[in-house]
Design brief:
About 5% of the residues lie in helices and about 60% in strands. The strands form 2 sheets. Strands 4, 5, 6, 8 and 9 form a 5-stranded antiparallel beta sheet that branches. A 4-stranded antiparallel beta sheet has the order 1-2-3-7, with no helix packed on it. By secondary structure, the protein is mainly beta. The chain is built from 1 helix and 9 strands; from the N terminus they run βββββββββα. The longest helix is centred in the C-terminal third of the chain and has 8 residues. The chain has a single domain, classed as Sandwich (Immunoglobulin-like), CATH 2.60.40.1470.
């Protein structure tokens, strides 16, 4: 399995690209606090508009502690994405361990009311400290 800070999945014409990076300025390794930023791009490669209604994240830390995060939209928005267009946003994730993973789905709705889950592929959150340990 590749441990990439990026993932990309396409479901029913909706392509979700995720990219994560470690933010040392907002982290405190001495107190087991690691902060990661991630950028998500939701692109409509299909031929029908779709609105992002809800999100579901599955976050696992290095101790296999799981957190499920559910909510309406993303960053307070429920964007409607037309064919050929995309929506991008940034957010963050704190962890108690040096590395972890995120994956999940967005509930999308077509103009005709049809709903489907657009998959967010697994991507890794890896601190600089964890990267150094792997290199040794």
């Amino acid at each position: 399995m590749t441990q990439s800070p990026d993932s990309e999945r396409t479901t029913s014409g909706i392509r979700v690209h995720a990219h994560a990076e470690y933010i040392p300025e907002q982290s405190d390794p001495d107190n087991s606090m690691y902060f990661f930023a991630y950028t998500i791009t939701v692109a409509n490669d299909g031929d029908a508009p779709a609105k992002l209604l809800d999100r579901h994240w599955v976050i696992l830390d290095a101790n296999n502690a799981r957190e499920d995060v559910r909510g309406a939209g993303v960053i307070g928005k429920q964007p409607r994405i037309a064919p050929g267009k995309s929506f991008q946003y940034m957010s963050g994730c704190p962890l108690r361990t040096r590395w972890g993973t995120m994956e999940g789905s967005y509930t999308m709705e077509r103009d005709d009311g049809t709903k489907f889950e657009a998959e967010i592929g697994r991507f890794f959150l890896v601190s600089d400290e964890a990267k150094e340990r792997v290199r040794k």
